[in-house]
Amino acid sequence: MAEKAAAPPPSKPLTTQEWETLIEDFQNGVHHKWNSLDPLFDLLLSSLLRKDFPLFLKLQLLVFLDEFSLSFFTSHHHLLRLVDALKAVVHAPLDVVASTYKDQFMVSASSILICASEKKVIDPQTENNLVELLLTVINRPNFGSDRHTRGVACECLRELERWKPGLLSDVVGHLWSLCQNERTHASQCYLLLFTSVIHNIIVRKLSVSILNTSVPMVPFNAPNCVMDSGSGSGSDLNVKELRRALAFLLEWPQLMTPCGMMEFVYMIIPVAMALELQPSMLKVQLFGMIHSFDPVLCHVVLVMYLRFLEAFDGQEGQVSRRLLLISRESHNYLVFRLLAIHWLLGFNELIFEKTKPTIELCSAFYPALFDPLALKALKLDLLAFSSVCAHVLRLKSGSDELIDPVKLFENGLVCVSSFKWLPPMCTETAVAFRTFHKFLIGSSSHSDNDPSTTRNLLDSAIFRTLQDLLVNMMLESRRLVPVVVAFVDRLLSCQKHSWLGECLLQKFDAHLLPKVKMDYNLVYCFPIFDRIAENQTIPPRGLLELLTNFMIFLVEKHGPDTGMKSWSQGSRALGICRTMLMHHHSSRLFLRLSRLLSFTCLYFPDLEIRDNSRIYLRMLVCIPGKKLRDILSLGNMILGISPSSHSTSFFSVQSPRPSKNFKSFKNLSSCIHLERLGPLLVKQFWSLSLSNLVVSNTKPAYLESIRDLKATVEEKDFSDSSNTEIIPGRINQPQEPLRVMDSKVAEILNTLRKYFSCIPDFRYMPGLKVRISCSLRFESNTFNRMLGLDKTVTSLEEIDALPAIYATVLKFSSSAPYGSIPSYCIPFLLGEPYNKDPASQNVSLSIVPVGVGNDSREEEKYRAAVVIDLEPREPTPGIVDVHIETNAVNGQIIQGQLQGVTVGIEDMFLKAIVPSDISEDETPRYNFDLFNTLWEACGSSSSTGRETFQLKGGKGIAAISGTQSVKLLDVPATSLIQATERHLARFVVGVSGEPLIDAVWQGGIIQNIILEDASPVATSVTNHDTGPLRLTYNDEECENGAISNSRKRNLGCFLVLIFLPPRFHLLFQMEVGDVSTLVRIRTDHWPSLAYIDDYLEALYLS
């Protein structure tokens, strides 16, 4: 009870905003929130009858009721209440209720009644009440104030009459009287209502008197024929009265609008035919509308013409001239002009047997120069139809007095002749070739019962004219060749007219090939050559001779300025040869094609073309024709080359496409291995990168290895008011404060300038390369299992059954600063023998004879050498990622990621660059002096200052910012010398100390260096410090001055000079002792010191 009391009262009226929200929710399907309004229909009716309710919302509610009528009108009571509400609104005065609201209420009520009858049976009383109310409204003829409302009521009654034919048959006499009395513009509505009632009386054959008005109009009762739902009384029609009514209706067409006239004629024509009225009566009254400028009225006349053909006999020419005149009058709308051409086409098909008067007007069918393109296209269709009509009439009459179809065709194309110089894909070109197709196959339909024969079309003048036109078109404008190919493809793809396309190709072979000009533009004709090569009915002789002459032309014209023309055009010529091999018997091609291929593989300038022609020649000579065609077809499927099918595109050239037989494997690195030939001493799993740590725009010197040469003056050295004079000869050099230098410093700077001028600037020219040698191999068993080929073979069949990969491409990338890494190609690689797999390598170790060293050479057969070329921008370790793309034996394309290749710091070690003017004998001394110079420049007390050195190319400069470090190695001298000879021999530039010189001399590995004993010169090279390096282990030893000499005896010193690309250096001065060695390190790239400790320990201590 509490819940009931809390519910909102059902009769509470809604506000304007609430009604708008309700309508929107219903339209969106969200009406559950309004279920509490009970009942909603009562609120709707009460709102419609409220005087203070806005008019615009009332109109919305009426439309809303009409839209959701099936939801609201669930009983007869609802419809009856709606009609009562309508009656209250209609009888209200105009100052209270607007006429617009009355009109909409009548329309909505009629619509709701008709729609509700589809779901439930309507109470006859409700229906009678609505009709009676509408009859009451219209029963006020010539009343001016409500003429529009009366017209709307007439339309509502007409809809109800259409809903139930014969509903107003008993009051038809009253309706006739109202039509006679009405003189306002609403008379059209009265006439259409009366006409619809007459039409239904005749259709249902109701025996009623239209002159009898004894039955009152109000109150209205539905006639028995409607209540019984019968087809009629079965009696004869009152023809006399009906003819009289029809004569009355035919006197009022001039009062109707074009749309009203259309409805009137559609109802009058069945009435006239049922009453056997003379068509001349309709012709006299209605035929004059053909001269109007309204397309609806013209359409009415054509509809009447279609029903009464005999009545308009002899007036075909008049109708055709009028329709043609409409299409030629430029002041008419384009839609009307296009519609007139459509009517004319349909009209000519309708009177096909009487087209002679129309054909005589063909000279007026030609499109005008400034007609829109759509109108030109339809007029050309009309000319093509006229040509067909003339051809048919000529066959029937046997006379040639009619129009010439060739003249019609040529004169019609004048309006679109610009397609010859416009782009091939323009709309005018499409219209022109559409016209070609219409004229060519116009007299031959796609029906199997078509009497036209092949010989008739081939012998027609249109076919001969068209083939000559197409040949001349391709000779004069080769850009149109793809359009001609598309035109031929359209014929070839049609089952009915494919022979027309073949005949055109035969004519092209006979007339086009001998006339083409031999130049580089001949390639534009290759699409049509492809179609000729595919057609088996055309002998290949002419095309082969043309291709041979073209190959000779390419060979003769080849030169340094030819570029890729020879390769591209030679490839396409070989593609046509391939097409002929696939579609012709080898016996037809052998002689001339073998000559063409032989000449190509001997004299053609491009290697790839020569190889391909040699392959085709061997296939032509050695493989039978059927098997050869199968192989070439299989090659298309494997390589992903689309066959030259007859597509509708202008260009249908064979082009590579992604193969469908394509797989990407994630575990490809488990069977395919790319390994370094020489293992790294240090497997560096990290690298030091400081470039991301720099926030400021100005990079430090150690990060900006090479800078552009600029004339900069620092503001701190020169004030704005200074009058410093800049020497013109040094305008391109960096300006710096004047400093005094001695001869030694000047000699150091001259040596460094000469040396740095030989280092290439990688920004403007190829930089120094670092080459990493690797080998590629793959395991046969794992590879087969991955591809799903689990083969088990015997030892005798092992070699023949080994898998192989073809056309392998290795692509490299790295996050380290190594520049662009070129890919590497391997043509062929055989898999390792099955007994080489890791699963079979777990055999017992046994003594192997000395002569079994040939196994290493056997293994090389199953490995491919790979070289990775790096161009470092910074000497740092890293990892090179490897991506492989290869082809299996079955044509399957395989791709995936392999294990990355590690790059160590020792890979960056290169020998210093020697200027070209230094002879080979002077090289050791130069390297020795260069070491001393760089050692001095990289020192902490360097006298080079901020000197910059210009690099090779003259655009970049570099500065030396050195740093130093030391490393103590607890390794015997013998082990250190052997390790140095094995890994650093090519970088040693000098050896000092007699014991060390003797040891190096006995080894014989380190050569072409400077050997110096302990002399003043040598001591100057090492250091000015006296005595060995003193290492203090704690503060007490340092305070007490204790010295620990761990080297026992100094044997000598190694001087090592290493170049780090792109322009850095690493210098070792190794003071060798009996049981330990002290390595002094200097470099102009301090981040590399992070890797040197690990490298020296791996080199000497492992």
UniProtKB/TrEMBL annotation:
GO BP terms: namely: endosomal transport
Domain of life of the organism in this record? Answer: Eukaryota
Domain annotation AP5B1 middle: ranges: 239-628
InterPro entries assigned: AP5B1, AP5B1_C, AP5B1_middle
Q: Which residues form a coiled coil?
A: none
- Which ranges carry the AP5B1 C-terminal domain? 1053-1098
Instruction: Give start-end of the signal peptide.
Output: none
Q: Name one GO cellular component term.
A: AP-type membrane coat adaptor complex
Q: Which Pfam families match?
A: AP5B1_C, AP5B1_middle
Q: What is this protein called?
A: AP-5 complex subunit beta-1
Which organism is this entry from? Sphenostylis stenocarpa
At the highest ranks, the source species' classification is: Eukaryota, Viridiplantae, Streptophyta, Embryophyta, Tracheophyta
